[in-house]
């Protein structure tokens, strides 16, 4: 955030809701890649991160959802560095609050890949070239799977977050009220504000 702060947009209020976990630690991932520690990145890291988002950052997501409960805050835009991980879980929780089917939530999450394709392709080409030079081998010998796993929106990730909610709570409503801390009134206001 210090290196790349949000722009100040006229008529908009910036609200910071920091969610910092291993899946979202861009500096740590970059350092692992530069050091050749590919075992430290990959799908396993992302799944753990998504599970952590739904467990450790409930209060942060509660603040996001509470913003949606107040019509004075709408329209509302929220983002993170990659636009798929922390925001993906925030979008998932918003859609769960709106009683959207889990299959539709997964489809929505997977659409991120279409919007990120050009960036992801460029990042993979750059890392492939860098790794080939560092290792002194041909680019086609570089296995980018661990890196690609960090860039992709994969159904396993969002499903891990959904499964964590299922494991920890009786149902979504219990998670949103008892876990996240929303009141029934706030949940009703979110539904009213976003569905009407």
Query: What percent of residues adopt helix (DSSP H or I)?
Result: 55-70%
Could you tell me the radius of gyration in angstroms? 18 Å
Q: Class by helix and strand content?
A: mainly alpha
Order of helices and strands: HHHHHHHHHH
Percent of residues in beta strands? under 5%
Mean pLDDT: 90
The low-confidence runs, each spanning 5 or more residues with pLDDT under 50, are: none
What sort of overall outline do the alpha carbons produce when their principal axes are compared? globular
Q: Please count the beta strands (DSSP E, at least 2 residues each).
A: 0
**End-to-end gap:** 34 Å
Largest sheet report: none
Count of helix runs: 10
Question: Could you characterize the architecture of this molecule?
Answer:
Helices cover 62% and strands 0% of the residues. By secondary structure, the chain is mainly alpha-helical. The chain contains 10 helices and no strands. The mean pLDDT is 90. The protein has helices at residues 26-34, 43-56, 58-69, 86-97, 102-110, 112-135, 145-151, 155-168, 172-179, 184-195.
How would you summarize this macromolecular structure in one to three sentences?
The protein is 62% helix and 0% strand.
Features:
mainly alpha; 196 residues
Helices and strands, with pairings:
Blueprint: H1 26-34, H2 43-56, H3 58-69, H4 86-97, H5 102-110, H6 112-135, H7 145-151, H8 155-168, H9 172-179, H10 184-195
Helix pairs in contact: 2-8, 3-10, 4-5, 5-8
């Amino acid at each position: 955030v210090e290196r790349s702060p949000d722009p100040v947009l006229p008529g908009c209020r910036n609200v910071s809701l920091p969610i910092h976990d291993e899946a979202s630690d861009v500096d740590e991932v970059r350092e692992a890649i530069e050091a050749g520690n590919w075992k430290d990145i990959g799908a396993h890291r992302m799944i753990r991160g998504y599970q952590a988002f739904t467990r450790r950052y409930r209060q942060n997501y509660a603040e996001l959802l509470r913003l949606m409960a107040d019509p004075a805050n709408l329209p509302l835009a929220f983002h993170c560095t990659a636009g798929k991980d922390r925001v993906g879980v925030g979008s998932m929780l918003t859609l769960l609050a709106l009683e959207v089917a889990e299959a539709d939530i997964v489809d929505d999450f997977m659409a991120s890949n279409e919007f990120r394709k050009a960036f992801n392709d460029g990042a993979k080409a750059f890392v492939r070239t860098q790794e080939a030079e560092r290792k002194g081998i041909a680019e086609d010998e570089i296995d980018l799977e661990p890196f690609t796993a960090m860039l992709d929106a994969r159904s396993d990730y969002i499903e891990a977050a959904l499964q964590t909610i299922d494991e920890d709570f009786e149902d979504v409503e219990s998670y949103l009220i008892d876990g996240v801390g929303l009141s029934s009134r706030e949940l009703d206001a979110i539904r009213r504000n976003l569905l009407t």
